[in-house]
Amino acid sequence: MSAASSTSLPWQGRTLHFVGVGGAGMSGYARVACQLGARVSGSDRAPSPYLERLHHDGLLEAHIGHDAGNVPPGEVEVVYSSAVPADNPERLEARRRGLPEHPRAALLAELSALRRTVAVAGTHGKTTTSSMLVCALRGAGMEPGWLIGADIGGGLPNAHWGGGDWLVIEADESDRSMLDLHVEIAVLTNVELDHADAFGSLAELREAFRSFLAPAPQAVLWSRPELLSLRSGPYEAYDVPEPLLEAGGTRFPWRGREVRLAVPGAHNALDAAAALEAARLAGADEGRAAEALAAFRGAGRRFQLLGRSAAGARVYDDYAHHPTEVQATLAAARLEVSGRGRLLAVFQPHLYSRTRAFAPELGRALAAADLVVVLPIYEARERAADHPGVSGVSVAAATAAAARGRPVYWMPGFDEAELVLGGLLNSEDVCVVMGAGNVDELGRRLASSSGAAS
């Protein structure tokens, strides 16, 4: 029985309206708010799988499109995502009526104060590490709650309040919301500049992570000098220097045990080691936690097998949008290619600011594939007018320069890419669609229904 279905419903009597509720994070906050007893409504500009799941679970029927009339009558707290501007009509209505407005970071901080919290931060690997940690704690019988930016696998959603003592949170640096959390165990996976619109330099980002780590009584850090130097208190360091990389999985030693993973790549071994160290600090049985990870099949949009193309090629979806992530994903995907198969990468750049900052590095990372398709930028919270001259063509050009003659295609949209890829893919190929936008829609088009993965 979850905490919300027991005798205490700490948010009973509250009414929360979520603007931007279709996102990976906001949909999770709405889900947990329902479990805590609040009345919940919400809106977003377009449908999403997260909205579909909230509706399917009977938690929320969201409004599609933003309008002042979406805000319910009476005493309502309006919660907005970082992608929702101040002139959004629902935020304007809240101010007209004198209703309280909360950024999503404030609500997340409030949730973290209700439970003993493990917060997983870092430029890469947050979602997978957090999901693995939930898997390990559940395997040890600890019934954690979680708030994570993707479905965590095994049919479980992106958020759940749980009935145990611990709450696992994916801590985001993009809007500095990680600094508002109440954290007992802080996990830091790595530090690289990613959000060029939020941090002016790597030094500024490092100081933000130092501030994140400082108040936590316990910490788990990747064993790298530049990370360990950010922590002034006690910590557990982890590393996996020589994982055994195989098609369909990874093996590595941890505290006298062999950990077996069903997800490929050295980066997944590192994420698993971080998760296990955090689980151990939270009091989990080490053996049961390690054994549980053998059943982990990956979080949503993290090298997720969507199915097979009409020609039989395996089609994967991955959230990789930073050069380091692209490189790690393609290295793992290469392990899945056999025989005469090829590795095809389909990349949708995310944000104009990131594309401007990292186009050459993205090109070099993508050039590891045998064939590359680059799509237009997914603009998210940014506008093309504010970034003149920046487009996905720069990524395609950088990829072509590094690809040593291997084919690189620039496609103006999903329809064109679907048509071209449909003719290019062969039965032994592996195709990975990558990006933090909506490129998974293209991946699902390419994957035939008969080959859909569970």
Entry summary:
By secondary structure, the protein is an alpha/beta fold. It has 14 helices and 21 strands. Helix content is 32%, strand content 20%.
Shape: globular
The second-level CATH architecture of the largest domain is: 3-Layer(aba) Sandwich
The Rg value, from CA coordinates, equals: 22 Å
How many domains, in number, for the residues? 3
What is the assigned CATH homologous superfamily of the largest domain? Mur-like, catalytic domain
Helix content range: 25-40%
Low-confidence stretches: 1-7, 449-454
Query: Would you count the extended β strands for me?
Result: 21
Distance between the termini: 27 Å
Largest sheet: 7 strands, mixed
Would you kindly provide a written description of the structure presented here, covering whatever features stand out?
This protein folds into three domains: 12-103, Rossmann fold (3-Layer(aba) Sandwich); 113-295, Mur-like, catalytic domain (UDP-N-acetylmuramoyl-L-alanine:D-glutamate ligase, 3-Layer(aba) Sandwich); 304-451, Protein-Tyrosine Phosphatase, Chain A (Alpha-Beta Complex), CATH 3.90.190.20. The protein starts with 14 loop residues before the first strand and ends in an 8-residue tail after the last helix. It contains 14 helices and 21 strands. Helix 11 (352-366) runs parallel beside helix 12 (393-402). With 454 residues, it is an alpha/beta fold. It is globular. Strands 8-7-9-6-10-11-12 form a seven-stranded mixed β-sheet, sandwiched between helices. The chain has a six-stranded mixed β-sheet with strand order 16-17-21-18-19-20, with helices on both faces. Strand 16 (304-308) and strand 17 (314-318) form a beta hairpin. 32% of the residues lie in helices and 20% in strands.
